[in-house]
C-alpha cells in the first residue's frame, strides 16, 4: 500500500513545523500581514496544520462549507490567495518534499480557491 504524502513527510510533527515556518513567511509578507492582526497564531497554526494534513492525505478533514464560512468574512483577494499558496509551496520545498508531492499539495490548495477568495 502506497504511503500518503502526510506519512511520507513525517506526520503531524513535521506538518506543524512546515506550517509554523509558512506563517513566518506570511507574517513578513506586506500583501498578507493585514489578515493576522490580533489573531491567535497558535490556534491558527493548529487549525492550518490539520487542514494541510488533510490535503496531504492525513487523518483530519475539513468540509467545503467550513472553509467558505471561515474565510468569507476575511475579504481575501485572489492576489492574496495566490501569494499564500506560493509561500506554502516554497515552504514545502524548503522541507525537501518530493517535487510531485509539493505539486500535489499545491494542486489541492488551488482547488479550494473559490472557497477562500471572497473579493
Ordered list of secondary-structure elements with their pairings:
Layout: H1 5-9, H2 12-27, H3 41-55, H4 64-71, H5 78-94, H6 99-111, H7 113-116
Helix pairs in contact: 2-3, 2-5, 5-6
Low-confidence stretches: none
How would you characterize the largest beta sheet?
none
> Number of helix segments?
7
Number of domains: 1
Average pLDDT works out at 95
The CATH architecture can be given as Orthogonal Bundle
Q: Tell me the radius of gyration.
A: 14 Å
Classify the oligomer: single chain
- Counted beta strands: 0
Q: State the order of secondary-structure elements, H for helix, E for strand.
A: HHHHHHH
Category from helices, strands and their pairing: mainly alpha
Helix content: 55-70%
Kindly report the name of the CATH homologous superfamily.
Globins
CATH class: Mainly Alpha
State the end-to-end distance: 42 Å
| Proportion in β-strands | under 5%
**Gross morphology:** globular
The name of the CATH topology is: Globin-like
Keywords:
single chain; 119 residues; Globin-like
Explain what this protein looks like in three dimensions.
This protein has 119 residues and is mainly α. The chain has one domain (10-116): Globin-like (Orthogonal Bundle), CATH 1.10.490.10. It contains 7 helices and no strands. The chain has helices at 5-9, 12-27, 41-55, 64-71, 78-94, 99-111, 113-116. The longest helix is centred in the last third of the chain and has 17 residues, at 78-94. The termini are far apart. The model has no long low-confidence stretch (mean pLDDT 95).
